[in-house]
Amino acid sequence: MALDPKVQALLSRPNFAHLSTLMPDGSPNTTPVWIGVHDDHILIGSGESSLKIRNLRRDPRLSLSVIDFHDPYEEVQIRGRVVEFREDSGFKIMDEISQKYIGKEFPFRNPEGRVALIIEVEKARYTKLPFEHTPPV
């Protein structure tokens, strides 16, 4: 699916995403993650032994929720699936994502079992509410 420019812009900024996967019993598991965007695919790096990778190898369906770091009333909800588990022991993908979030290479350099998820978006729902984030102090 081609990403709407507003979705592409939100995903391209250093906003945190919440990745939901399915446990073996069907219950959801949610993890905050960094994300990258390449063309119309979302990229997430992780270790092969992580729960999210084990869940997605069994069932590649997922959902993501992303809100703007500075304006939490701008958000996107995504449903999709992993279309490729790409070996990333050289940190090519993870370093690119890390540059976006912390301005340097990914600090944990154990290359064994590094994998990048290549995610195809099947549905994206973008919302920008007309609120100003001004919680009382």
Total helical elements: 3
Q: Order of strands across the biggest sheet?
A: 2-1-5-6-7-4-3
Note the main sheet: 7 strands, antiparallel
Rounded average pLDDT: 96
Beta-sheet strand percentage?
Answer: 35-45%
The backbone outline, from C-alpha atoms, is: globular
Helical proportion?
A: 10-25%
Radius of gyration: 15 Å
Features:
alpha+beta, 137 residues, 7 strands
Q: Explain this structure to me?
A:
By secondary structure, the chain is α+β, with helices and mostly antiparallel strands. Helices cover 20% and strands 42% of the residues. It contains three helices and seven strands; from the N terminus they run αββββαββαβ. A seven-stranded antiparallel sheet has the order 2-1-5-6-7-4-3, with helices on both faces. Strand 1 (17-22) and strand 2 (28-33) form a beta hairpin. The longest helix has 11 residues, at 92-102. It is globular. The termini are far apart. The mean pLDDT is 96.
Topology:
Elements: H1 5-12, E1 17-22, E2 28-33, E3 36-38, E4 41-47, H2 51-58, E5 61-67, E6 74-87, H3 92-102, E7 114-128
Antiparallel strand pairs: 1-2, 1-5, 3-4, 4-7, 5-6, 6-7
Brief summary of the model shown:
By secondary structure, this protein is an alpha+beta fold. It contains 3 helices and 7 strands.
